[in-house]
Amino acid sequence: MEILFSILLIIIALALIGIVLIQNAKGGGLAANVGLSTQMLGGVRKATEDIEKVTWGLAIGLALLALASGFFFSRRADSVPTPKVQPVELPAEMPAPAAPETPAP
Fold first, then answer.
1. What is the DSSP letter of 18?
2. Which candidate, 18, 27, 12, places its Cα nearest to that of 60?
3. What is the pTM of this model?
4. Which pairs with CB-CB distance under 8 Å and at least 24 residues apart come from 61-64?
5. Using one digit for the tens of pLDDT, what is the confidence trace for 5-49?
6. Residues 9, 65: contact at Cβ < 8 Å?
7. Which of 1, 60, 83, 100 lies at a C-alpha separation of 20 to 30 Å from 16?
8. Pick from 72, 57, 54, 60: which is nearest to 3 by CA?
9. What are the boundaries of each domain within the chain?
10. Could you count the other beta carbons within 10 Å of the beta carbon of residue 30?
């Protein structure tokens, strides 16, 4: 399930990046560069509106999918039992280190 959510999140994020890069900051975008006149079928205004709708749809889909994956992953993490660790017994008294022997001259 995690792999499915991860793949969908990556695909939607890449699509959103591509759609945002197609748009122009001043509202022209890809449709303004094509050279279509506004009297043609749909025209520039229609293409700009469609790109904006796709952008909003991808952004909302990404947010919902991120929330859903966080919800499912947190539930799964809560249900995993914690491993039982055995305590380590330390000796009550540590022996003092031996003094190094100095060679006689």
1. H
2. 12
3. 0.54
4. 61/12, 62/9, 62/12, 62/13, 62/16
5. 899 999 999 999 999 998 876 655 555 555 544 444 555 567 778
6. yes
7. 1
8. 72
9. 2-76
10. 15
